[in-house]
């Protein structure tokens, strides 16, 4: 007999064909589809709801810490971007250009925003007058477009992507430094407390900062193929944008000062990293924090006990819903239990509850954890409380597994050969002493396409080795090399 | 002594210069600023937060009624729009065209979405197979661009605007009809229960439907200058999009049918209508439902009683906050109470609480309603409950005032001359018998720029007069003429 669920299931292997497997999970779990134009995707309700839950956490934290949402135009006049290019070395984004409106050619081309510093900064300049206007903290949730020619990988690499971009102005360097770290803390918290992913915190080496930034900080996450993903960035822009766009304030003594500005953002790439980290060859795995449905109740009945089994399952689902659990009852007639199990595993529901005649008779229900299939009976009487606890257990399992992987993938090296060999053989992170010269990145970058993805944040920390692993000069800091997305 | 608040206040008159007054309120209440490109605005936090609250109500109602959010690309290939133009008579939007990506010219131009039927319908076609896949209800919150050359009026007329667009597919005409009315009900509820504005429900005359629609329904709101605003629309698209984009399903008997589709949307024009309806010559007036801050507590102290007055005010603000009221304590040292009153009136805080030494002594607080300045003392002990009640009272006052205005602005007419005279003299709505021929709109449209903004929904209702007011033929229905935005 043909088994219909086989066609629905994942056919690629996470271990052996990570890219193909990822693309298959995204499509078959109905998170996203490819758009007709290369580089674009359609985010389906199952994918968008995960983004909404991520947004809801982060937006709440932002608002609790003085941030207010706003909305700036999606277009930026060419001369605004030019102004930014003149003052910010290295800023030359590839953008989508609007040249015609209706049937007419525009007098000036408009860029679809690749990021909004250049259109937000002039308004900050108008809105900031006195020291009382600072700090000014703005954020917008929007989509941006970067016309980079790359193979489309849903959520990871798309020409249009959803993100939030925070833009803040401050009195002085210290306040801007604290803001940068506060947002980095919130991103770290997002990964660790919401997405069940440990991350490494650090700053980008000076040659890899955001153009114009004083400091770029990052949280980096390890993917199963051994590459690092930049999970979110928080930039201390110093006074470069304030100088370019005249963001000045008058202090209590009537003296005029340049403001210090920051920007910080996380994109839907976080969804890509989430999907890739936890999912497996059965399909999507999501932590209960962001899963659209947290629990599926599957009644398993025969002709002789249908009423009692379905009734028992329905009442359980109602109790869970009343307790605030996002629960679905799958009592479809036209699908057998095996099909249902496979479907909800594919679609990433964290906890399955099986209810059959034995469970009804014994006053129990059977819980099954999505990540590892662990199955165990619990009393019906305490089922709601047990479900809440087991959702936490599932979260903990996902986090622990990702943490164990990460810890095993950070290695040390003391020479160029050792770095190359270790990255070539294992991937992951290699940490080593570094003199701080960007030239020392090249002998690693060229042969294995790995570079310095971050340097630990604390500048006063002792480097792990006294000497730069590449040139042998005095090492001022520790560099983390990795291949990256 | 010069009075600094005079410069901050509104200088234009709502009655005598409605347009200028509106623009001044929007800017001085810090809701929005003009962007550097004509037709675009920057939505500031005070404005965006009102939009977020509107979103939160509506999004909740949508989700409670089976709608799921998604996100489709902001660009639509030219051939997709062409396909829509071929099948949908009258569809020829003026759009912004992206012609270059990075340094290269694109092979095919991309339109920045003016609305998304043409990119969503092809996916509906893929996602709908069986009758079990219906109804399919999608929504997205996004921005759209329409390159119409008009004078910019923040929120009312902008080339880019924020909105939500719902797109649904159904089994048959009846289900699509019910969906259309369900969304119209939700829009009516938004206006009446959230924005404190009564609206008229109806359908657009056939010659003014959305291109390709079977029926376009609308809620219309009256503005203080006597013009009507289309507050939201809900379209039953019949099978025209399903035919053009092959949205078909197989029923239980294995027969194939065309789906019926709907689309429905409300834009930030609702904010414009809200601001224009309730605000006055002192500035912004907002209902407590959407006001970012609902209550401001202003302590009024002298040197000898500062500690007790500010302490009393602070404790009150804390109690209100604990009860879930959005409250602000204005204990600034460098502003006098008169300045503070004017500032918060300008910025539209619905309820002010004044606390001076007399209030402290008497164990009272003084509440002042923003809409009409009504001032009354309440016991401190019951202040939290009183504030909650008075917020409802303020809402009621706003609604009642708008309702009274609307009722006085609906007039009847029995001839062309009477319609022209009434609209010319009073503005507002004129209802009359109508034969249903679009030609009968012209003799009104030309001289006074008024047209049929809606026809009451119930097709079986008796027309108010037996004869068409313009041509004298049998009147099949009642038309509402008005000038409109």
List keywords for this structure.
BirA Bifunctional Protein, domain 2; 14 helices; globular; Translation Initiation Factor IF3; 26% strand; 3 domains; alpha+beta; homodimer; Rossmann fold; seven-stranded mixed sheet
Write the layout of secondary structure elements.
The structure is a homodimer of 485-residue chains.
Chain A (H helix, E strand, L loop, with lengths): L3 H5 L9 H11 L3 E3 L6 E3 L1 H20 L3 E2 L5 E3 H10 L8 E6 L2 E9 L4 H11 L8 E10 L14 E11 L2 H22 L5 E4 L11 E8 L5 E9 L3 H6 L2 E3 L5 E3 L1 E8 L1 H10 L16 E5 L6 H17 L4 E3 L7 H10 L4 E5 L1 H6 L1 E6 L5 E5 L3 H26 L1 E3 L3 H11 L2 E6 L7 H7 L1 E5 L22 E7 L2
Parallel strand pairs in A: 3-7, 15-16, 15-17, 20-21
Antiparallel strand pairs in A: 1-2, 4-6, 5-6, 7-8, 8-14, 9-10, 10-11, 11-14, 12-13, 17-18, 18-19, 21-23, 22-23
Helix pairs in contact in A: 3-6, 13-14
